[in-house]
Design a protein that fits this description.
Distance between the termini: 52 Å
Strand content: 15-25%
Largest sheet: 8 strands, mixed
Order of helices and strands: HHHEHHHEEEHEEHEEH
Radius of gyration: 28 Å
Helix content: 25-40%
Number of helices: 9
Number of strands: 8
Shape: extended
Mean pLDDT: 79
Length: 280
């Protein structure tokens, strides 16, 4: 209607200007879409809330100390799941029931001489993805699973695995390095991995934007040694493509492991694990 009103004069240029003005007004009045809310566990919510409360206090102490924060990039190398998880029994029962309801009530009933029902139309034959050759969970276990070999990539094939390292201090962590001036945060994370394993594994970056960050204050003795109040660790992700770990700095890194997200709680502190589980 607005175009019709403006069609009396001014030519096509004025009509397009009028259309652009109407579109801009509609876009301004349109409500912004609601942001997608992250699903968080209660423990993760409590940890994040505690971080928000503790941050002003840590900033105040850091300013009083006169020491800067140390910016660190950490890379979380992930091996993708290699096998699909087997469906649970309730999923199989529901799909069977849904198939039979669809067959008997929802679909158009054809005369028997046109479409004859056969056993090939049963869910076991028609939906092979629900019945993967009668595979059992025990058959998905590998020798590495039975040995509990956390250095092997041939374990926990239905779940993602993350690469962590153990330093001389006995603490487990993802590969990390100090950020340098003029360096992209992704380049810092890649350098951290290359320092530990060299070119022994190939990875694909999961983006240039960190998934999250964590901070902590150093003990007083280490603050003087590092000339920093504490560290702010930014976590980035990469996907494992090929190769196995070959530690290049055995004087600083003494062990490594491929662990599932659930197993990280055995290696990290409870509050840090809760946050990492939230961003993983």
């Amino acid at each position: 209607r607005a175009l019709a009103k403006s069609a009396g004069g001014g030519g096509w240029r004025n009509r397009w200007k009028e259309l652009a003005r109407i579109k801009a007004k509609q876009a301004k009045n349109r409500k912004a879409p609601r942001g997608r809310k992250f699903r968080q566990s209660l423990l993760a919510e409590s940890v994040i809330a505690a971080r928000d409360v503790a941050l002003p206090h840590d900033i105040e102490k850091q300013e009083q100390s006169g020491l800067p924060w140390r910016t660190v990039a950490s890379i979380m190398v992930m091996r993708d799941p290699q096998l699909l998880e087997l469906p649970e029994q309730w999923e199989i029962d529901w799909q069977k029931l849904s198939f039979k309801l669809d067959r008997d009530y929802r679909r158009r009933r054809y005369p028997e001489d046109v479409l004859e029902y056969t056993e090939d139309m049963e869910p076991e034959k028609n939906m092979p993805f629900l019945f993967p050759f009668n595979v059992t969970p025990e058959q998905q276990l590998t020798d590495a699973d039975k040995r509990g070999d956390t250095k092997s990539l041939q374990r926990a094939l239905t779940k993602p695995l993350y690469l962590i390292f153990k330093g001389k201090s006995g603490a487990w962590q993802f590969p990390q390095a100090t950020h340098q001036d003029g360096e992209e945060i992704r380049a810092t994370a890649s350098r951290a991995l290359g320092t530990v394993v060299g070119n022994s594994i190939r990875t694909h970056p999961g983006g240039n934007f960190p998934l999250g960050y964590w901070w902590y204050a150093y003990p007083e003795k280490r603050q003087q040694k590092m000339k920093a109040y504490g560290a702010k660790v930014f976590y980035l992700r990469a996907t494992h493509l090929s190769g196995d770990v070959d530690i290049r700095i055995p004087d600083r890194v003494v062990d490594y492991a491929w662990v599932t997200p659930e197993e990280l709680k055995d290696y990290f502190e409870e509050d840090l694990y809760a946050y990492l589980k939230h961003i993983l």
